[in-house]
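Q: What residues go here?
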């Protein structure tokens, strides 16, 4: 190995060492740490797949629950007095309730009357009452 090549190699190694020191000072991103654990040799692909998908949907109601709620809400704000509607409403995530609030205001006239802003406030108040 030539002297120039040793110099370049040692300079590269030195730069890598310095970059590693800087990186160790940074806080560890919990998402990256979780993904690294899932990439371990003793973790099966099936197990990693289930963990990744469970994390994606946790805290959200199933799509079928949202659609059943939307079907019930076609009956108007009075549907919020039914136990099955309140149960479905309680399962929604914050994102899902916002999506439902938008969708009820966009009901097509041949399906159901579109909800007014006041009706949506009642919907959000009902969910807030359930979630506290």
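A:
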């Amino acid at each position: 190995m030539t002297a120039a090549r040793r110099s370049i190699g040692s300079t590269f190694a030195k730069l890598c060492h310095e970059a590693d020191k800087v990186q160790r000072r940074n806080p560890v991103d919990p998402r990256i740490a979780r993904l690294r654990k899932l990439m371990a040799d003793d973790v099966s692909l099936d197990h990693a797949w289930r963990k990744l998908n469970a994390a994606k949907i946790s805290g959200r109601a199933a799509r079928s629950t949202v659609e059943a709620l939307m079907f019930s809400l076609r009956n108007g704000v009075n549907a919020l007095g039914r136990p099955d509607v309140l149960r479905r409403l309680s399962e929604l995530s914050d994102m899902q309730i916002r999506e439902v609030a938008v969708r009820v205001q966009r009901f097509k006239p041949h399906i159901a009357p579109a909800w007014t802003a006041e009706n949506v406030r009642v919907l959000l108040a009902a969910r807030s009452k359930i979630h506290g």
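A: Context that may help when evaluating the design: The chain is about 70% helix and 0% strand. The chain has a mean pLDDT of 87.
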